[in-house]
Design goal:
Structural class: alpha/beta
Radius of gyration: 23 Å
CATH class of the largest domain: Alpha Beta
Number of strands: 14
CATH superfamily of the largest domain: Glycogen Phosphorylase B
Helix content: 25-40%
Shape: globular
Strand order of the largest sheet: 1-4-3-2-5-6-7-8
Number of domains: 2
Number of helices: 18
CATH architecture of the largest domain: 3-Layer(aba) Sandwich
Strand content: 5-15%
Largest sheet: 8 strands, mixed
Length: 451
C-alpha cells in the first residue's frame, strides 16, 4: 500500500535520495513519532527526496491511536510507502486467528515466538523484516537511494539499511531514540553478549556510517560496549519544533494552574506527584488555591494505564483534573492555560524525555518531579526557572519544589519569561538536526564524486 506525493526538483543537480524507515510515522500518535515526523520533514526541507517506509494507517487505528492533525503537517513532497505489517500483537479480530492460536494459544505463542526469533529477534515486530527489506529493494530499484536512515524502536527499522548496504553498498545511519540492550530506567543490560540481539546489534553498528543517540549518557553506555565504533557515534538530541505562543497563563481567581502535557505511562510517577501536591496544599495557601491539569494519553498504546485510572477517583478533591489527549496542532493552546509546568518522569539516569525541550521553550517555571540523576536534569541545569525535587521519594521535597515554583510563577515578570524563552532557543530541534543533515549531504555528494 503506497501513499505517493512525489518530489520534484527544478534544480539541475539531482536531489539526494533518503530512504527513511520508521514503524511509527504519522498518523501514529506514539511518543516517538514527533522525532520521526520532524526528521523526515527536515530532510525534505533541506533539498532531499525522501521516501518513508512505514506501516498501513489501520495499524495505528487498532493500536496506538491516530493524530490526523500531525499527519496533515507531513511535507507533501515526501513519498510514503506503507509496507504490510501482520503481527499477532495487533490482531484483535478473533475471526482471523489461525485454528491453532484459537484452540491452543500457549502452544501457538511459543511457536510464533520462535518464528519471530529466527526472522529477527524482536517480539511483535521481527516478522516485519522480510516485507520491509523487499520494500527497500523495490524503492532503490525505481529511485536509487543515496542514504538509509532507520529510527528505533522497533529495531527492525534498522534492517533495510543493512540490506541495502550489503547488496548495493548504500550507507546507512542508525537513530536510537531509545536503546535496544539498555534499560534506560534501571541501567541494566537486557541481552546477554552471546544473544541474537547482541549479535544483530554488533553487525548493524559495525557497518553503520553513523549512529545517533538522544543524549550523552546513552551514547557513553554504547561507546563502552562498542569502543571500536565510538568515533561514529553522535548525540542528536530531541528538541522543540516551534516555541508555544507566549501567553499570560490563567486568569481565574488567585490560584495558579500547574500543567503536565505528555503520555502518562506506568513509568510516570503520578502517585508521588499527588502525594507531594497534597503536602504542598496543606502548607501553602497559594498552592491550595491552585490546581493541576494533566493532559495526554494514558499509555503509549490504546489501552489506558490502569494505575492512573484508579487514582483518578481522588483527583477532584485535591484540585487535580485529567483533561485527555491533545492533537499536535492544539499543543500551543494547551500550554497557554498554564502558569507552571510539571516534568514528571520515570527514574533512570538515561531518561531525558522529548517534552523537556518544549517545556523549556515556554519560559514558564518547571518543577522536575523525577530522580535528580535523570538525564533531563542535564538539560535544565542552567534554566532560569527550574525547581528540581531533592528526592523523588519524599512528599515534603516534592512539596518544597511545588511551593517555590508557585511563588516564582506568581511573581514572574513578562521580561523574565522572555529571557527564559531566549535561553531555551538552544533546544530548537533544527539546531540538532540541521548540522547532521548538512554533514550527511556533504558525505553523499563526496561519494558521488568518488564514483
Amino acid at each position: 500500500m503506497t501513499d505517493t506525493t512525489p518530489s520534484e526538483s527544478t534544480e539541475d543537480a539531482p536531489r539526494p535520495h533518503l530512504l527513511y524507515v520508521a514503524w511509527g510515522f504519522p498518523p501514529c500518535r506514539g511518543s516517538g513519532v514527533y522525532r520521526a515526523w520532524a526528521t523526515a520533514n527536515a530532510f525534505a526541507a533541506a533539498g532531499w527526496d525522501v521516501t518513508v517506509l512505514t506501516v498501513p494507517r489501520e495499524v495505528f487505528t487498532l493500536s496506538t491511536g491516530v493524530d490526523e492533525s500531525l499527519e496533515r503537517t507531513v511535507d507533501p513532497r515526501i513519498e510514503i510507502v506503507r509496507v504490510p505489517f501482520d503481527s499477532a500483537a495487533f490482531q484483535n479480530d478473533l475471526r482471523r486467528w489461525p485454528w491453532l492460536r484459537a484452540t491452543a494459544p500457549e502452544l501457538w505463542n511459543v511457536l510464533n515466538a520462535r518464528k519471530e526469533q529466527r526472522t529477527f529477534p524482536e517480539r511483535t515486530y521481527g516478522l516485519w523484516r522480510p516485507a520491509l527489506e523487499a520494500a527497500a529493494l523495490d524503492v532503490h530499484a525505481r529511485h536509487p537511494v543515496d542514504l538509509v536512515l532507520g529510527t528505533a524502536n522497533p529495531h527492525v527499522d534498522f534492517t533495510p539499511g543493512l540490506r541495502l548496504h550489503r547488496d548495493h553498498g548504500i550507507p546507512y545511519v542508525m537513530d536510537y531514540r531509545d536503546a535496544w540492550q539498555l534499560d534506560v530506567f534501571t541501567g541494566a543490560r537486557l541481552s546477554a553478549a552471546d544473544s541474537a540481539v547482541a549479535e544483530w546489534e554488533r553487525e548493524l553498528i559495525a557497518d553503520a556510517h553513523a549512529v545517533w543517540f538522544v543524549n550523552e549518557p546513552i551514547l557513553r553506555w554504547h561507546a563502552e560496549l562498542y569502543p571500536e565504533a565510538a568515533d561514529r557515534f553522535r548525540v542528536v538530541s530531541n528538541g522543540y519544533d516551534s516555541a508555544p505562543d507566549d501567553h499570560p497563563g490563567s486568569t481565574e481567581g488567585d490560584g495558579l494552574v500547574f500543567g503536565y502535557l505528555g503520555t502518562i505511562s506506568s513509568a510516570v510517577p503520578i502517585d508521588r506527584l499527588v502525594e507531594g501536591w497534597k503536602v504542598a496544599r496543606s502548607r501553602s495557601p497559594l498552592v491550595a488555591a491552585s490546581r493541576i491539569e494533566l493532559w495526554g494519553h494514558l499509555n503509549h498504546v490504546g489501552t489506558p494505564n490502569e494505575a492512573v485510572s484508579r487514582q483518578m477517583a481522588g483527583f477532584a478533591e485535591n484540585g487535580i483534573a485529567y483533561r485527555g489527549p491533545v492533537p499536535k496542532q492544539q499543543v500551543g493552546h494547551v500550554y497557554s492555560r498554564f502558569d507552571a509546568l510539571l516534568l514528571v518522569l520515570g527514574t533512570g539516569r538515561y531518561v531525558t524525555s522529548g517534552k523537556v525541550f518544549e517545556y523549556a521553550a515556554t519560559g514558564l517555571p518547571i518543577v522536575s518531579v523525577h530522580d535528580p540523576g535523570n538525564a533531563a536534569s542535564d538539560v535544565l541545569r542552567d534554566a532560569p526557572a527550574w525547581y528540581p525535587v531533592a528526592s523523588i521519594d519524599s512528599p515534603d521535597a516534592i512539596a518544597d519544589a511545588l511551593i517555590a515554583a508557585a511563588e516564582r510563577a506568581k511573581a514572574q515578570l513578562p521580561e523574565e519569561r522572555a529571557a527564559a524563552r531566549v535561553w531555551a532557543g538552544q533546544f530548537q530541534r533544527a539546531r540538532q538536526l540541521d548540522p547532521q543533515i548538512a554533514a550527511l549531504h556533504a558525505f553523499v555528494e563526496q561519494r558521488k564524486v568518488a564514483r
